[in-house]
Amino acid sequence: MSEQSVNEIDKKEPIPSPSLELDAELVLEPIPEQPQDPTKASIEERLPEQIDLADPELYFNRELSHLQFNARVLEQAMDENHPILNRLMFLCIFSSNMDEFFEIRVAGLKSQLEYSREKNGPDGMHPKKVLSLISEHAHKLVRRQYRILNDIILPKLANENVKFIRRTVWNEKQAAWVKRYFRDNVLPIISPIGLDPAHPFPRLANKTFNFVVELEGRDAFGRENGLAIVPAPSSLPRLVKLPDDVCEGGDNLVFLSSIIHAHADQLFPGMTVKGCFQFRLTRNADLEVDSDDIGVDLAGALRTELQSRHYGSSVRLEIAENCPLHIVDSLLKQFELEQQDLYRIDGPVNLSRLMAVLELVDRPDLMYPPFSPGLPRKLASSGGLFEAIRQRDYLLMHPFESFSPVIDLLSEAAKDPSVVAIRQTLYRTGSRSPIANALVEAARNGKEVTVVIELRARFDEAENLALASRLQDAGAIVVYGVVRHKTHAKMILIVRREGAELTRYVHLGTGNYHAGNARLYTDYSFMTSDKEIGDDVHRVFQQLTGMSKELKVKKLLHAPFTLRDRLLDMINREAENALKGEPSRIIIKVNSLTEQKLIQSLYKASQAGVKIDLIVRGICTLRPGIKGISSNIRVRSIIGRFLEHTRVYYFFNDRNPQVYLSSADGMDRNLNNRIEVAFPLQDYKQTRRVKKELEYYLADNTQSWILQSDGSYQLSKPRKGEYRSAQRALLSELADNTR
């Protein structure tokens, strides 16, 4: 699709970026490289034939690239094209992303050092060096985050009459109301802990909200220790809305931290409170279920491990910036942390809890307006989904197109007396979701329901255990996939008796079976009754639920068996065509790209002259723009209103384009250590459609960040009158209509 045709879809002018000092730190610095041998020429100075494609100079560090993705999310809070409450949401998302980054990635690096299991990645950087660089860059990001909150977001919200009232400016009525709130709601359930030999330092759970209080004086028992810990009860809201009768209009909110801080003296009667400082401890939250120790009960092993998740080793301490040094040093010693693990905070220690603003404040004018997802007319008709899918394949792109046909397909199957069996994989869906409800109904209606639940979906383990129990209680067969390989494929197989035959109906997707995520994530859904695809999905389920040798599949690509090798074959074919002077092209859209053999294959294709466009939302360790190696590779990241989640693999294939959609990213874990599938689009119109939608992303010049050869990202800046947004174009083309 030409740039002109994209312009015709979306001509809205962007709001100019704010001219602020904050812009000086727009993105992270270039990713540092491993120091090279000074006697060895740099990668740019060597001839292509002198370069080993495994050379560490050709790869960015995975963890630092991950941090850069978080930086791009943070920058959305600076983008005035987003409504102000959505900008606040991006600050919250950044905070949540950073929590997980420390809980999993930083914790993993620390564990390597603790147990002397250091392992350099393809970039050659030692874990100790990586941790040092993470600390340097993460501190910059956190400082920037709070400057954006305090200097931009909160003042702009105040201008819209949404105010966060600090305790230093409470009027008499507000102070009296807060005092009553503390007396009635906080004081009865809070448990201050004075520190002395009989009261050791409490065991604080991961990411809980706490205060360290400095005291002066002796208590009734003559104790004089000087410090106390006050855990904030998790049952209390972190934000409290003041009633209208104590305010002068608008929405007025106070932080729980302000309420506790203002009344800390009531927690220690007769003592003098010299200081009260909020802090939060982040711990290692990565579950380590040893495959060799699981025995016959994965669910039981996981339940046991979940109990200890909240008390892993310490990895980060966040604390109020005005906390005295001697208290900070005491906490660092208590948690066995170093100075580089300390983050002084100018505001609430857990910004992700500011998401509560969306529930407390009814201001739809400060958010993106809602939209109605589009729906193909034949799927919306009353003829039934089985009839529609029997006639043709359907491809939907969420959230621009409705997720309801996926839910309706299962609901219809649950009630249809002709349906005899349903099989489905579930990774993240929720135990009370519409999908779960339909499967429960189907099982209770006597269908043969088999569900493969991946219990180890990170941070959804407890929810998936509850879902498994609910399905089993309804009579469904529940299995947990393969012990050493997470089941990440997204598949539904419905077997329906039609006359003397059994017909298979299939749904395959790039995203999770979660209706809420389907309104926030971009994903493809594919529905078909194609016999060979139905046979392939049946065989994959056979492997998951039973035990067998590798089963041949005809149309699907199946990890860990055929997916990576077939992708390499298709990349190599494009390279061969380019060497013969034939047209060639590769477009890949994934969340992350780190798998070394896949990257090396792309380097070879670039050397052969293949034009390669990579749309990589998050981590990318491939280094583009190196003369003679990757000069034909362009990498961009799209960050916008919706989370980009589609995985697409496009190959020109000598003028007969091939498109595969998949749940798999270009990562080692996806291609080699998970159960994944990629499915082909066989209809030319659907292939052409996906290519057009990829071109929207390649033409985007407003939410597109271009990866440079030094590892930095540059935000595209449109010329006047040339504003192009992929997500806005897709909303315009696919949503709000029935086709």
What report would you give on this structure?
The chain is α/β, with parallel strands linked by helices. It has 3 domains: 173-366, Polyphosphate kinase middle domain (polyphosphate kinase like); 377-551, Endonuclease, Chain A, CATH 3.30.870.10; 558-734, 2-Layer Sandwich (Endonuclease, Chain A), CATH 3.30.870. Helices cover 35% and strands 20% of the residues. It contains 21 helices and 27 strands. Strand 8, helix 9 (325-335) and strand 9 (342-345) form a beta-alpha-beta unit. Residues 1-12 and 15-28 have low confidence and may be disordered. Its cofactor is Mg(2+). It catalyses: [phosphate](n) + ATP = [phosphate](n+1) + ADP.
Topology summary:
Elements: H1 3-9, H2 62-75, H3 84-114, H4 127-159, E1 162-164, H5 172-186, E2 193-194, E3 209-216, E4 227-231, E5 239-241, E6 251-255, H6 256-262, H7 264-267, E7 272-283, H8 298-309, E8 314-320, H9 325-335, E9 342-345, H10 357-360, H11 377-380, H12 385-391, E10 394-398, H13 404-415, E11 419-426, H14 434-444, E12 448-453, H15 461-474, E13 477-479, E14 486-487, E15 490-498, E16 501-509, E17 521-528, H16 531-545, E18 557-559, H17 563-579, E19 585-590, H18 596-608, E20 611-616, E21 633-638, E22 643-644, E23 648-651, E24 658-662, H19 668-672, E25 674-680, H20 684-699, E26 704-707, E27 713-715, H21 726-734
Parallel strand pairs: 1-6, 8-9, 11-12, 12-13, 14-25, 17-22, 19-20, 20-21
Antiparallel strand pairs: 2-4, 3-4, 3-7, 5-6, 7-8, 10-17, 11-15, 15-16, 16-17, 18-25, 19-23, 21-26, 23-24, 24-25, 26-27
Helix pairs in contact: 2-3, 2-4, 3-4, 13-14, 14-15, 17-18, 20-21
Active site: 488 (phosphohistidine intermediate)
Protein name: Polyphosphate kinase
InterPro entries: PP_kinase (IPR003414), PP_kinase_C_1 (IPR041108), PP_kinase_middle (IPR024953), PP_kinase_middle_dom_sf (IPR036830), PPK_C_dom2 (IPR025200), PPK_N_dom (IPR025198), PPK_N_dom_sf (IPR036832)
